[in-house]
Every structure is written in structure tokens, then in C-alpha cells.
Design a protein that fits this description.
CATH class: Alpha Beta
Shape: globular
Radius of gyration: 19 Å
Helix content: 25-40%
Mean pLDDT: 90
Number of strands: 13
Number of domains: 1
Largest sheet: 7 strands, parallel
CATH architecture: 3-Layer(aba) Sandwich
CATH superfamily: NAD(P)-binding Rossmann-like Domain
Low-confidence stretches: 1-27
Strand content: 5-15%
Length: 352
């Protein structure tokens, strides 16, 4: 690796020992070698956004499996490189930096493209910034991967592409109907993945994540995902705030399932050519049910959720059909919702 890599970020980012991020519960939940053996031993991988929530879990799994992993992250989303284990190389930088992306991609077998600006409501407020980072940044990653002869690019797509189509479950063949700039960015990136596969022979996969949650998901900003936001409120002795009536439902998916899907996509023996693949558990939980479950797990059942106005760009219901993932990748969820929620709540209890 080049000398430009650094193991940790510069101050003011808070550095904690890696053991503080995995802990005994997390380290035993999924044994990656039992699932993937030695397939990734000696492989080289770049994880963009790899100091963030999903990316750091993916980098950890690849490292456990014997891959040589590099991480690119600009830390703009509150990521913390101390979540990365020893042996994973880290460089602080942006996917908008074309020379840097090209340098980090050179010599890599796989690229796991997780970097993006997240949050539907924030994208409504900042559409141009989201487009430039998410769409143009993805173009930079694809150009670098094409030049480097990467075997396959795995893209973190989103179930937000389905919009508010009332049909359940969501099937990949449905037309897209983005209701926010964030969703539109993700749809545009899916099109780029398919175009690069068709035009240049760069193999790609689009993994449509459904409401991924788990340890290390940030609760420290106004756009925090619902489980992180609920945990922060409940642990502070406050009632969680539900946007809308709470009857909206989501296919909440523990993060190890997303990691597993990425690894299966990388391993797939056939060309994927930008195929759209739902990644979820296949179970629908309402936000009201979620709030009640979390309050019970945290011993805060007396804290009844309060309700606020709906959020712009949100969809009412989300549930994945997993037929494509099963048939193409051999994917099955490895951690169910209740087990994942229990582990996640335990982590927030120790971290917040």
C-alpha cells in the first residue's frame, strides 16, 4: 500500500479501541468463516464508505475472511475509523476525488461501494449536494474500477427506489418511483451500474437494502435512522418521536444480512451485469411495534411514543420479495429481526 494511507483519522475525531466497537456480543453473532470459508483469503478489496455503519461491518467481515482491505471514507457522516480492525488500511478522502479513487482502486479484486450521503429528509433540503456526491461519486468509482480491471463492483442500492407503490412485497421488476432526491440518486446509480456492465464489461451488482440497522449506526444527528433515534431517546429517559401515525411499516434488516449479501454477490460464479437484488429479512414491522419492542427491551415501557408530522419523501410501507436473492445468490437471512434488535439495543446501552 502507498504511504498516503493512514491508520486513523486526524483529530478532532474520537478514537476508541477497536474492542469497544465489536464487544463480546457482536463478535459471536455471525461467524463469517463458517459461511464463506477461505473464499476471500488473499483477495484485495476496496470498501468506499468503509468507516461508516454498513461499510465498517463489511470491512470487518472481509478482514476476518483473510482479504486485504482498504477503506476510503471522508468521515462526513460521523464515521469513525477506530471501528476498523488492525490490518485494515484507512485513507480519509472523498469519492469525488478522482485521482485518489483511481489510486485506491488499482490492484483490487473487488470494490464494495457503500459511500453515499444518506437520509431522505436531508436530501430534500440539499438536492444538489446529494446528486453530486452520490451520482457523480459513483461515476468516479465505476471509472476507476473499469480502468483497474476490477472483477466486480457491489453497489449499495436502496429500497427507496420503489417509492410509495402500494404493492407488497416489493419485486425488483417493479418500475422505480423515487419520492426524494436521495431515492433518485440511487436509481441513477443503478442505471450507471447496468450501463457500465453493458458498455464496458465491468461486472456489477445492485443490492437494494431495506432499512438496515445494527451496532454503530449513528444516533448523533437529526437525521438518524429510526432505531438509532429511538434508542437515544429511550436511554435518555425521553419518549421516542414517531413521524406520522406509526402504522407505516418497514422490512427492518440486521446489518449482518447486508454484509452476507455483499459477500455472496462477490462470490457469485455467473455474471451479474447490474442485476437488482433485494436485501432484507422479508418481514414487516410497524414503527409503533418497533417503539414498543424497544421500550420493553430497554426497561422503558412507561415511555409512550409521541407523534409528529409525516416526513417529506417517506413511503408508507416496505417489504421485500427475496426470490431473486435466493435464486441468484443463495441468500437467506442469517440474523432475524428480534435477535438483531436485541443485540443492537445492547450495543446502544453500552455506547450511549
Amino acid at each position: 500500500m502507498t504511504p498516503d494511507f493512514q491508520q486513523y483519522a486526524d483529530p478532532p475525531f474520537r478514537i476508541r479501541p477497536f474492542s469497544a466497537y465489536i464487544g463480546p456480543v457482536m463478535s459471536k453473532l455471525t461467524h463469517w468463516r463458517d459461511l464463506h470459508g477461505t473464499y476471500f483469503a488473499g483477495a484485495t478489496a476496496l470498501v468506499t464508505g468503509g468507516a461508516g455503519f454498513i461499510g465498517s461491518h463489511l470491512a470487518l467481515a472481509l478482514n476476518d475472511l483473510g482479504a486485504r482491505v482498504a477503506v476510503l471514507d471522508d468521515l462526513s457522516g460521523g464515521s469513525d475509523p477506530a471501528a476498523l480492525p488492525p490490518g485494515v488500511e484507512f485513507v480519509r478522502g472523498s469519492i469525488l476525488d478522482q485521482p485518489l479513487v483511481a489510486k485506491l482502486t488499482a490492484g483490487k479484486t473487488y470494490v464494495f461501494h457503500q459511500a453515499a450521503l444518506g437520509s431522505v429528509p436531508r436530501s430534500v433540503e440539499q438536492p444538489r449536494r446529494f446528486h453530486e456526491t452520490n451520482a457523480t461519486g459513483t461515476l468516479n468509482v465505476l471509472e476507476a474500477a473499469r480502468a483497474a480491471g476490477v472483477m466486480r463492483v457491489m453497489f449499495a442500492a436502496s429500497s427507496s427506489a420503489y417509492g410509495d407503490n402500494p404493492t407488497l412485497p416489493k419485486v425488483e421488476a417493479m418500475p422505480t418511483a423515487p419520492r426524494s432526491p436521495y431515492a433518485a440518486n440511487k436509481v441513477a446509480c443503478e442505471a450507471l451500474m447496468q450501463a457500465y456492465a453493458a458498455s464496458y464489461g465491468l461486472d456489477t451488482a445492485c443490492l437494494r437494502y431495506f432499512n438496515i440497522f445494527g451496532p454503530r449506526q449513528s444516533a448523533d444527528n437529526a437525521y438518524a435512522a429510526v432505531i438509532a433515534a429511538f434508542a437515544k431517546a429511550l436511554l435518555a429517559g425521553k419518549a421516542p418521536i414517531i413521524h406520522g401515525d406509526g402504522d407505516q411499516s418497514r422490512d427492518f434488516t440486521y446489518v449482518d444480512n447486508a454484509v452476507h449479501a455483499n459477500l455472496l454477490a462477490a462470490r457469485c460464479p455467473r455474471k451479474l451485469e447490474g442485476t437488482l437484488i433485494n436485501v432484507a429479512i422479508g418481514k414487516r414491522v410497524t414503527v409503533n411495534e418497533l417503539a414498543a419492542k424497544m421500550a420493553l427491551l430497554l426497561g422503558r415501557s412507561h415511555l409512550q411514543a409521541a407523534h409528529g408530522p409525516d416526513r417529506a419523501g417517506d413511503v408508507k410501507h416496505s417489504l421485500a420479495d427475496l426470490t431473486v436473492a435466493r435464486q441468484l445468490l443463495g441468500y437467506q437471512p442469517i440474523v432475524d429481526f428480534d435477535r438483531g434488535l436485541d443485540v443492537t439495543v445492547q450495543w446502544y446501552q453500552s455506547a450511549l
